[in-house]
Every structure is written in structure tokens, then in C-alpha cells.
Design goal:
The complex is a heterodimer of chains A (about 240) and B (about 575). With about 240 residues, chain A is an alpha+beta fold. Chain A has helices spanning about 30-35, 40-50, 75-85, 130, 165-175, 200-205, 220-225, 225-240, and strands at about 60-65, 90, 95, 105-110, 115-120, 145-150, 155, 180, 190, 210-215. Chain A has one domain (about 15-240). Chain B folds into three domains: about 10-225, Aldehyde ferredoxin oxidoreductase, N-terminal domain (Aldehyde Ferredoxin Oxidoreductase,  A, domain 1, 4-Layer Sandwich), CATH 3.60.9; about 240-440, Aldehyde Ferredoxin Oxidoreductase Protein, subunit A, domain 2 (Orthogonal Bundle); about 490-580, Aldehyde Ferredoxin Oxidoreductase Protein, subunit A, domain 3 (Orthogonal Bundle). The radius of gyration of chain B is 23 Å and the shape is globular. Chain B has a six-stranded mixed beta sheet with strand order 2-1-6-3-4-5. Classes of the chains: A alpha+beta (about 240), B alpha+beta (about 575). Chains A and B meet through helix 3 and strand 4 of A and helix 4, helix 7 and strand 13 of B. The structure holds iron/sulfur cluster (4 copies).
Amino acid sequence: MGDSRKPNSLKGETLRTIDLRGVTDFSRRDFLRTAGVGSAGLITFGGWLVKSVSAQERPAYSLIVVDFNKCTGCRTCEAVCSQANEKVKLDGEELLGLGNPRFSNVRVYSFNPPVEIPNRCVMCGDAPCIEACPVPPDPVTGRKALYRDEKTLAIKNDPERCVACGSCAEVCLDKRVGAIILDPVTSKPGGICNLCEGDPACVKYCPFEALTHVSGGLDGRHYALPPEKVAQELISLWYYHQK
Amino acid sequence: MGNPIPGYHGVLLEVDLSKGKVNQLPVSPEDASKFVGGRGLGIKILWDRLKKPGIDALSPENPLMFLPGPLSGFPIPSVSRTCIVTKSALTSPVKSRYRSASTISYSNVGGFFGPEIKFAGYDGIIVTGKATSPAYLYIDDDKVEVRDARRFWGMRTNDFDIAFTEELGDRKFETCYIGPAGENLVRYAAILHTSARAAGRGGVGCVMGSKNLKAIAVKGTKMPEVAEHKRFVDLLEEVRSSFKDWPGTDRWRRYGTAGAIIDRSDRGIQSVKNFREGTFSEAHKIGGIAAEQNIWVRDLACYCCPLACKKVGVVRGGPYAGVYHDGPEYETGTMMGANLLIGDLSGLMKEIAELDDYGLDQISTGNVIGFLMEAYEKGYIDRKFLDGIDLKWGDVEATLALIEKITHREGLGDLASRGVKALASEIGRDSHEFAIHCKGQELAAHNVHANPPRAFCYATSNRGACHLSGDSLGHLNLLGAITGQTWDFPSYINTGERIFNLEKCFNYREGFRRRDDALPDRFFEEPLTLGPAKGAALKRDEFEKTLDNYYSERGWDPKTTRPSKEKLTSLGLDFAWKEIRRL
Ligand code: SF4
Ligand code: SF4
Ligand code: SF4
Ligand code: SF4
């Protein structure tokens, strides 16, 4: 399947339904207005959402949020993510890579009218991707082939145990943002944001300050709108005179 | 295929549409270093392939080439542009033995198309031949196919952009395509990318149309190696921070090129009223400040560029409410605004959107319409000639009606689709004095009455009048780290000169001489009557004298402009000398 995402017509019919039950104080439009206006609004929103999950039981989640008003679609985030995560060993020295977007954990999708959506794993609190993984938890570590990193809480794959069934990618595409890319050769999952182990390159290098690393218990079920959905809302927000 | 050249894949993708054959050609390491950059490699390939002068630009033999440079695809700020090189569908010499003589044409487009060609594993795409029915080219790494595009033929570019994404089933493809103007072989048709970025000049869209090629889609996963990895990543870091510190960054981000609309008008060097004037009294209505307040919604950037000079806007009221598009930029706002005395920002947005939607070059179209407005005002042509259109200065609706006729080459549109040179020779009298072109290519949005250096650039450019000839390869150190060659300023200048001379040889062989390095009489004989540069005009004797010096300094014969044997030999262009020595 590779890096493919079914385009939708933006006319409404082919969009996947997102479960927004539980989001009572905000209409979807309000949510996106907030998302469009600035990351500060989002942080508040995320903080509000945390009430619906039992935050005490786990360390704080964090994720990369996008201020869509600022994003210009330059794809610098793709390049620097790849540079930081696909390092090169030369003469014993570990160097940044050349930035082939193929190795990036964020992918910018472009729409018409122009809307750019940097898409990455949004660290769903309930991680349906892990849920879907058929590999039983390891008796010692408790990890399936897809698991949550204990330190960053980012989603990781254990290629040794992974059976390349693709269930994780499928469920993420179906129910969340479609953040998992299956390797064209091994069919094992990749392209998942690892938060750069706490020092996100995309945030540092985005020339337009469109990205923020937000910590706080954010329930991914509600933030996890797929790019098509976000684009559709932003298009009606920005190009509202469009006939 | 082994690759001896860092920064390159060493592979050009050639697609012969007549035979439906796909071929991988090696890049010669010698060419890669001697003719560095898309424009350079382009002229070398064009020279090698079009062995005879006078080959019709619209014939299957003319290669249409998409050439990202060696920096393209690396995450370097502001180097994303791709050069499209072919033989021009628009230019022609004053006289030549060959009926279809024309210059080289190169046209640039920013965005993501060039980088994606590199990601697919190619240093460029060469399209030759002609498909038997409308086709598009599908490239996904090594998977290359010529596919049926019949159901897309006739589609405007914006609708096509949306439909094509559906067809491809993957948003990660980068695409470029022509609109109805290119399909109908309008001589100044453009090639579009992301429905608003255009390679407009020199009729590259017309050449694409002549090949029955609606579009190219490309996507890939590869990247070439670099010669000095560590130096490269270190320098990249430096270049990135230099953009952060550059004082121009804020201005570019805020207004893009539209900031120049008022500035150039204030200095009397904008194209106004078919280049009759250099100052537009309504510039403030269409400039960056007005657009920011009334139109613009957001900024867009090309691949890894920190400037985001493209502005997308939407018209919020009036007859054109709902039109969304990029712009106005300096060139589009000037040619379709100031040059036609149109100060209605919404109307201007509508025009710009229509031109991109039909796939017409904004600069040439602005000239054609300005020329016709003037001829109409002067009584050289009547309303009947204009198929009933009352083509008055400043009239948006009349302009839109004419744009449609040109696109479909209906009635007057057929003649107008060949540019101002053709129009002037049909209309006759002294209309050639205000047909604003050089070598048949219409001038860009800078008036030159008060700007002799620019006048000079227009006259001596190898693709006919243009506005980007000084475009630099830039980022020399990065180029050095990528290719492993030492690039300093002198070697860069030397390479530029080699490329320029080979282009010149190409044009010379076609029959272009000194008489073709000429500008319309208007700039010499009709001084500006308005604005800060009032009274300014070019002086013919000075202009000719500057040309004399220029040719001598270049090592060209001032009489004929033929490059000398010494010059060509010193540049390693002996092979070109052999071809032009007897001409
Ligand atoms: S680097 Fe920033 S502005 Fe550029 S695409 Fe990524 S998020 Fe958007
Ligand atoms: S976005 Fe996808 S990959 Fe990330 S946690 Fe949610 S389901 Fe898993
Ligand atoms: S592909 Fe691997 S990680 Fe994903 S669900 Fe299957 S086994 Fe688990
Ligand atoms: S935080 Fe790191 S891994 Fe995640 S998208 Fe940004 S650069 Fe990539």
C-alpha cells in the first residue's frame, strides 16, 4: 500500500465519520476554529479534554500540534524530520541525514483550494493501533509488536516481533489520521512520530513557527481528525465565499 | 546504472510519446559539470538533439525537458525551481532562411515538481514525440507509464487539478499540466503546477499541447548522494540561519512580489498602458497593501523555502465574489492590471484566475490585450475586428471576453493567439511601434523608458524578452559540497558564460542576428508623460553604443553578434563553432 491515502472529493460523501461523542462543549466547527487560530487555543482545548481520561494513571502525553493559519506547506518539517531520524554514520560520526521526505514521520498533504495539512501521529490516548496488533504482549516487557514507548509515550514498532499484518496502519487510517506508513519492502509499520525523543526537529526548524510540542493529557480520540476532514473544515472557514 | 556524479542520479528519463517508449539515459559527467543547472543541461541537450536549424517547435522532434538543478530536492531554502527547456513556440527572427526558426525557450516554475522528479530518481524528464491521443505521464519511481487522458482533454486547470488527484488516488504525487490554451496551441500557453504556479514564458505549454500531453504526475522515494556529507549538513544549517537573519525575509513574507507594484510605479518603471507609461495612478488599489486588506487569506511556500511569497486570496464581494486564487503578484498584477489600466482588485483577481485556469501566460496575454486596447483606441482596428468586444482601457469584462477567444482561438482569438508581433504585422501601419516584444516574445512587467539596464537585458536575452535572465544558481558552497567540485564566483561566472554562449549559438544558427536584439520604437520615441520619470526615453545612439561594447566584451562580432572562435574555444564550445563558422 505504501504511502497512499485515498483522496476524497471534498464534497462530503467519501469522508470518514469521526466519533465526536463526548465532545459536548464544542461543536466541531468551534474545535477547528480554535485549531485554525492558534496553538494556544488548542492547548486549552487539550486540557479540557483530559477530564475524560484518567490522567493520574499515566505520565503526561505530548504531541506536535499544528497552527494551520501559519503553515505554508513548505515541507521543511518533512525534510528535517527525515534528517533527524534517518541519520548517517560516517567515519564513526553520526551525522544528520540528507532529508529525503520518504523517511519522515510527518507528511504534508495539499488540498485544492490551498490548504496544507502536516499529518503525524497524534498520540491517541486509547491507541487503537496497539489495540489492533495481533501479536501478544511480551511476558516481560508487556509490549506487543506495536507498543508505547515508556519514556515519551510515542508509538513504536518492534520489527523483530512484527508479523507485518498491517492491521495497525489500517485501523489508524480508518479511525484516526492515517499516520502509519507500511514499508514498501517489509510491509512493517513506520513513519510514526517519535517526538525526536523529546527534542522535536520539526518544531525547531519550521520556518513559520506553525508547530508546537504540546504536553498535557490530550485524548487523541478527539484530536485525531484525518487530513481530509480538517482540510474540508478549513476550506469552508477560509474560502467561505466559494460557490 | 552506476552513478559517478554526486548530486545527480546520473539518469534522465526519456519518454517518446510517438512510440510509447520509455528510456533511461545516462547523464554525461562532463555535461553535468560543464553545464551545471537545469538551464545549462537543457541547452546542451537541445543542441545535441536539434542538429538542424529551423525545426518546427511544434514538431514531435522538439524535446520538452523538465530539469531540476543539482540543488533541487535537497532541503535547501529557495532552490526549488525547475527549468523547463525546449525550442520556443513563440519567438521568431526578423528574417531567416527557415520558416520555423525560433530561439531556445526556458521557463521556470517553483513549488514541488522539480524536487519530486529528483525523488523519483531522475535528474530530469525529456519528452519527445507526439501521442496519438491525449495522454498523461505517470511516474512512480521506476514505474513509468503513458496513460490515457482523453477524458481530461478540454478541462480547465483547476478542475483538472482536483480530478487528477482523484485519478491518481494519492495526494503525494506532484503534477504539472496544461489547460485548454495549451491544448489549442496558443503560442504563449503555460504549464501549470498546483493550479497556480506557472511556467509561463516561451510557449512551453504550447509545445506540451503539440505532444498531446495533458499532464505529468511524479512521485518517488529516492535521493542522490552528496560528495561531502558533513560539509553539506553544516552549510545547510548556515544557510537556514542566514535566512532567519536576512532583513528582507519579513518583507517578502508579508507582501511577496506584490510589494513591488507600488514601488515600481512610484519609480516610473512599471509597465502601464501597454508600456506607454511607467506610473499607474491606481497602483495602490492593486498593490500588496490593498490585497492584504481585502483579498489574501494565507501564504504559501515552495519546497523548503522560508519566504512564502505566494499569497492566496479570495474575492469577498461584488460580481466576482468567491473567486479564489494566488495573487496578484508583481508580474500578474502589473500585466493584467496596470498595463491595461485596471485598478479593480476583484476584477484583477478574476482575470488572473481565468488565465491560470485556461493555462495562458499572464505576461504575454497582458501584452496582447494592451496592444489591442491601444490599437482600438487609436482607430487602427474597429469593434468588428474585435468580434464585437468593446475593448476599452480598464474594462475587465471585455478583457475576460477576449481571454476566452484567445484560449479557444475563435475569431480574432486565432490571430491574437500568436502574440503581438503577429498582430502588428496583420494590423499594419505603424502598429509595430507599440507591439511590445523582442524576438517575438512579449516583454515582462518592467517598463524601460527610464531603466536602460533592463532595456538592455530585454534586448540581449536569449529567449526573447524576459525578466529573469540574471537568475543565479546561488548557494555556491552548497553546490560544492554536493558535487565535490570547487565552486567559486569565477568558476560560476565561467559556467554561466558557457551556457549563455551555447544558447547564443543555437539562436545564431536559427538566423538571429544583431537586428533581432531590438526593442520597440516606443521606448525611444515616446517619452513618458507622467510620474517621477516624466520625459524619460531611451536614447538610440547610447543604446546602440552599449550594444557595441557589450558584444565586443562578450567576444562576439558587433555586426552580426556571432560569437568568435576564440571565445567559444576558451569556453570548450568548439563543437558549436564548427556549426556557426560559415553562417
Ligand atoms: S515546516 Fe511548518 S510551515 Fe512548513 S509545512 Fe511543516 S508545519 Fe507547515
Ligand atoms: S494517530 Fe494512529 S498511530 Fe498514532 S496513536 Fe493514533 S492510531 Fe496510533
Ligand atoms: S503490522 Fe506489525 S505492528 Fe502493525 S499490527 Fe501487524 S504485527 Fe502489529
Ligand atoms: S517530533 Fe520529531 S519525529 Fe515527530 S514529526 Fe517532528 S521531527 Fe518528526
